Amino acid sequence: MRRHELTDEQWECLKDLLPPPSKRGRPRGDLREVLNAIFWLLRTGAPWRDLPERYGPWQTVYDWFNRWRRDGTWDRMLQALHIRLDRQGRIDWELWCVDGTTVRASRAAAGAGKKGAPKNPQTTLWAAQEADSARNCTWLLTAEACPLPSERRRARGTNQRSSKR
Length: 165
Fold this sequence. Notes:
By secondary structure, this protein is an all-alpha fold. Helix content is 49%, strand content 0%.
């Protein structure tokens, strides 16, 4: 048995949770190998097309993965394993784990824009309104609370230069 592959005991727990074979069409291949292939992909993080040839065509493995996702097979497996582990007292329902991964965002993600790029908040505000963003949209609230300098002068009704004369 290779790394990332199911043991005989693990396979015995999971094989009854897989959908029964169809009476029509070609006989299906070994689903244990399909599960081993999926677990290899999940463990290594490799793309589907980089699946080792010993597991068969990547398209077949991908099709099984998607079929089981759509028909709820993965959910049934997880639920059955939860029940089994809970009966054995191996699940601590009081323990909560939260992923602490942090990804640094660019300045543009915060609305700052790129250095030297032309700034035109009116275009962005117009785009947000045309996209039918809700009134509580963060961008719309920011744009209304911080109008452009030219809008502030128009709102006062006077030009600063003309008031000095």
